[in-house]
Amino acid sequence: MRKMIILWLSLIGAFLTVLDTGIVFTGTVKIAADLHLSAAQLSWVQLSYALTYAGFMLLAGKLGDLYGRKKLFIIGLLIFGVGSLMIGASNNAAMIIGFRAFQGIGAAIIQPTSLSIITDTFEDEELKKAIGYYSAVVGAGAAVGITVGGFFASFVSWRGGFFVNVPIALIMILLAQKYLKNEERDVSRLDLIGSLLSVVAMGSLTYGIDGSSNPETVLLISAFLWIVFLISQKAVKNPMMPLLIFKSRERFGAYVGSLLFSAAGVIFWFYIPQFLQLKLGNNPFVAGLEMVPMSIFLFIVALQVRKVTKQIGNNAVMILGLLLVLLSSIGLSLVSKSSSYLIILPFTLTFGFGFAFALTPLTFSATNNLPKNVSGAASGVYNTTRQFGAALGLALGTCFVGNLSDVSTIFKDVMNLASVLSLMGILFVLVFVIRKKSK
């Protein structure tokens, strides 16, 4: 029973961080109207969250190794809950942007800590099963968030989508206090310079990709900061990001494969709801409901991945999933001029199938066979690559769209982009992950 409660705490924690991204996707129009936000201010509502979410994730993973998962998980929930409360109460641009950034810090703590709690608590087949559940809730979270956000935006208020996090976070804090173990950790080893460099390097990278008006300069600065950060990690005795994490060819391949996979996936999550509203003429709630079949299908398939893996192997499941994501993107590109939901639906279902099949083995390859004293750092790196992949996918999508105004043309172009990213992910996994396993 204790293990089951710990698993649910971890899953709901991971789910909340993804859920809020989807809520914002369908609530943007109402948020902008209610708070009188300009287009630039509205983009910062999402960007401020993305910056702190990505920027603090590496640090959060390492802090879990040093200070213990229980303390950090509770702190993350507290920050996330307070941030959600204040976002819902916001009455101007500065307030909502500032507390979205604050909420992102909480999400950056919760996400890698949730995964580390799972890898610390379970082993062997139990671990594979738990990671399957983790993949299911992460995959379904964005689509559920789109539906929840659409419901609140259409019938109640966009604020309700954030207020609902507060009692959930409070209940989880109480349960975490009771059921998570107190761990004795050595708190004297925090790499302060590396911690600061990691936050600034990742934050500047995300900003350079998604928010800067002068991305070339910001990305150049970010590249310099990353070089300094990596050099510092080789020089210190107890690095913030142990480089031994990358010694495994399989793990390195899973990181980059997840980055490309996430870049392709976020294009789907971001542009499908817009297509359903702008091309098919649906309101946010109906568009959200039209995502529900895919969400349910994704969740059910993700729960069966472990059984399928036993029968055909981890390699086959991983490649099958990535191929289905690729085929879904190609299919959606081909039907971009359609105005029928029934024509779009099958490709959303195959995407859900592929997403569920690909995410579980990628997560397992990225976090398996690591000592507990670096599992938090490894989870932080893995979740950071996924978050960076999402930022990269949105930025590339914006570049492809440019000044286009035709919905069908925009949708076709971004789905072609998703196809290219998926294909690159497949090739990378074949070379680094599967080739390594076959040796």
Write the SSE topology.
Layout: H1 2-35, H2 39-55, H3 57-67, H4 69-88, H5 93-121, H6 124-155, H7 160-163, H8 165-179, H9 192-210, H10 215-235, H11 249-278, H12 284-289, H13 292-312, H14 314-334, H15 341-367, H16 372-401, H17 407-438
DSSP helical segment count:
17
Largest pleated sheet: none
How helical, in percent, are the residues?
A: over 70%
Mean pLDDT: 83
Task: Point out poorly predicted stretches.
Answer: none
For the secondary structure, the number of strands is 0
Return the string of H and E elements.
Answer: HHHHHHHHHHHHHHHHH
User: Based on CA inertia axes, which overall geometry fits?
Assistant: globular
Ends apart, CA distance between termini: 40 Å
What would you call the structural class? mainly alpha
Strand percentage: under 5%
Give Rg in angstroms: 20 Å
Brief summary:
The protein has 439 residues and is an all-alpha fold.
Describe the structure.
The chain has 439 residues and is mainly α. Helices cover 84% and strands 0% of the residues. It is built from 17 helices and no strands. The protein has helices spanning 2-35, 39-55, 57-67, 69-88, 93-121, 124-155, 160-163, 165-179, 192-210, 215-235, 249-278, 284-289, 292-312, 314-334, 341-367, 372-401, 407-438. The chain is globular and about 55 Å long. It starts with a helix and ends with a helix. The mean pLDDT is 83.
